[in-house]
Fold this protein.
Amino acid sequence: MSDTWIVDLRHYLNEYGAIAISSGPGLRLAEYFTAITQETTGDPYGEQLYPKVPCRRRPNRKPCVGEIASYIDPDDQQIVWICPVCGDNGTISGWQGTLWDLTQADTTAH
Ligand SMILES: [Zn+2]
């Protein structure tokens, strides 16, 4: 069984929009979610402009070899992501306007 991470990216950020956590597992988690946000919003057509995010899970104490697959849900604009190998998955909301929101960089869509 795998967990579903329901994340609001703003909860990880301070008043300046940077990651509010300075160290530890919380920081690694925040960096994981910001990396997924960057890869998803900066690369909507799968052009691999940004590196795929490696799965962070370690099932049976071995690092999962999966790379996170993700897309922006057109209905509610949440980022939906899943590891195709171990099934770890979740959604990210509140990413719009953060430092990792690269949707505005795509001039062809606006
Ligand atoms: Zn995985």
Remarks:
- Residues 55, 57, 64, 66, 83, 85-86, 88 surround zinc ion (CB under 6 Å).
- The first strand starts at residue 4 and ends at 8.
